[in-house]
């Protein structure tokens, strides 16, 4: 998902950027994005009861590619060189395939939707640490404190051992892999694909992910999927409201100058995921989990809400 800046890994804003959205429209779109994005983690948990992770992702992204191509891809400006095609594909594999592959396996191995969403919401913190270490973007004191506070919030949740038996080393390693990949995808996208038409980039991302996940699903999982109604509903949810709807709203908000607000939306998704999981599975978040989420959200807010955040590519535009 990402934004802004004059840093070495980003480009300056377009002076011809459209006018900002009205508050009512912005809040409506933001509410949709947060609800659908957070609910996606719960939909994943439902899907994984009937399908293996790679297999499901392969089917999901095949459908998403076909829908995206029909909806807006045919009007897009496509890359003109093989190198550019390659860069866009790599960005997509990092931001979609590797990211969701890790996220799905974390949940497949027992990590709850709420905790998965919470750890992945730390992506702005991870990106801030990377650019401050390797790209010469200095963090403010407030941002450095925010990183520590955000990590402390996650540590509080994990240390409390929500679903104790589920917090296995494998599930934490998988979600850590997902966080690392989406952070790498953010930086790669901004460095090598900043001038690519977002419509064609989304189509290439979806196609590259499908081409990776379908063979993996066949080779590793035996293409394990049960064609029950629940799979149909989760695919519909992930393809239309999420892959097409939420991403389109994300790009619209970014293009209309709402970069800081978009980044802030990321740390509202874990509570939505936790509430959705509670409603469907009866897994009530503990007081300590709510406290840890709040602390982590405060940390992310400290990193992303200051003026210094304008020098950080915190959300990748086509993830």
Key phrases:
single chain, mainly alpha, 12 helices, 71% helix, globular, disordered C terminus
Structural class: mainly alpha
Categorize the overall geometry: globular
- What is the overall pLDDT average? 82
Q: Name the beta content range.
A: under 5%
Terminus-to-terminus distance: 5 Å
Radius of gyration: 18 Å
Helix content: over 70%
SSE string = HHHHHHHHHHHH
Contiguous low-pLDDT stretches (5 residues minimum) are 1-15, 314-319
* Main pleated-sheet profile: none
Question: Strand tally, please?
Answer: 0
Please describe what this structure looks like:
This protein is 71% helix and 0% strand. The protein is an all-alpha fold and 319 residues long. The N and C termini lie close together (5 Å). The protein is globular and about 45 Å long. It contains twelve helices and no strands. Helix 1 (23-47) crosses helix 11, helix 2 (53-71) crosses helix 9 (229-255) and helix 3 (82-108) crosses helix 8 (198-221).
